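Task: sequence design from structure.
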């Protein structure tokens, strides 16, 4: 046992500290070997938690945690344009409507982070959903 003392007189065993440090994961995590259960749990954190879905009827919407923002829009002309934190993420242009059909359906899903603000830039939405990720709660 190699004993060292702190400035306030506390006693530490430097051999214990070295052993603890040697057993820690390295910066690239090359020295860890997670079990399959651990891998499965980590993967599940990024999966949608549909049982906690939030149905919203209006925008703007602020994400309470990391999750999926889903919307649909039924329109006879034009498009629905969504902005996240002021950036248009829905693309531009018209939804093409086949001759004789009165409307078209636009559906989209986007990963968003906690506190992202989703707003409507143009058009209208018929359904708005936020689905948290399981690891975000």
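Answer:
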């Amino acid at each position: 046992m190699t004993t060292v003392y702190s400035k306030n007189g506390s006693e530490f065993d430097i051999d214990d500290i070295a052993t603890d440090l040697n057993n820690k994961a390295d910066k690239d995590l090359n020295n860890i070997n997670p079990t399959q259960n651990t891998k499965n749990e980590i993967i599940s954190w990024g999966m949608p938690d549909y049982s906690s879905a939030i149905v919203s009827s209006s925008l703007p919407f602020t994400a309470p945690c990391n999750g999926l923002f889903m919307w649909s829009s039924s329109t006879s002309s034009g498009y629905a344009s969504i902005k996240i934190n002021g950036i248009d993420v829905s693309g531009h242009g018209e939804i093409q409507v086949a001759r004789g059909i009165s409307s078209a359906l636009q559906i989209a899903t986007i990963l968003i982070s906690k506190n992202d603000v989703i707003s409507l830039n143009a058009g209208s939405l018929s359904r708005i959903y936020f689905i948290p990720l399981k690891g975000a709660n």
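Residues 92-99 have pLDDT under 50 and may be disordered.
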